[in-house]
Amino acid sequence: MTGSTSSTPADRLDDDDYPAYTMGRAAEMIGATPAFLRALGEAKLIVPLRSAGGHRRYSRYQLRIAARARELVDAGTPIDAACRIIILEDQLEEAQRLNAELRQHNEAGTSATDGA
């Protein structure tokens, strides 16, 4: 979770990972049904945190993922395929980020030895 351990309740408003939204509010925000959010949870695309009373709570980050899934489903993609697409997109983005970091690291090492 982002943020420091000594954060105030107001700091949580800026935290993308803070589970601030109830299932009903989350579904309303992305224009879906609670059943759709439950299906995403069953597919393990997003795993909501639970309140002390056991109610599902969603973060802004999870809502962005759910909104992307809804776009794909609305375009005719089956929900299980939509979840897989999003997971693969995320893995590709991470691999590209790591590749860019390695390239920068290698270029920095090469330029340091070129001057020797």
Automatic annotation (TrEMBL):
> Which InterPro entries does its entry note?
DNA-bd_dom_put_sf, MerR-type_HTH_dom
Pfam families attached to this UniProt entry: MerR_1 (PF13411)
**Domain named HTH merR-type: residues:** 20-88
SUPFAM superfamilies listed in its UniProt record: Putative DNA-binding domain
* SMART domains attached to this UniProt entry: HTH_MERR (SM00422)
Record's protein name: MerR family transcriptional regulator
Originating species? Catenulispora subtropica
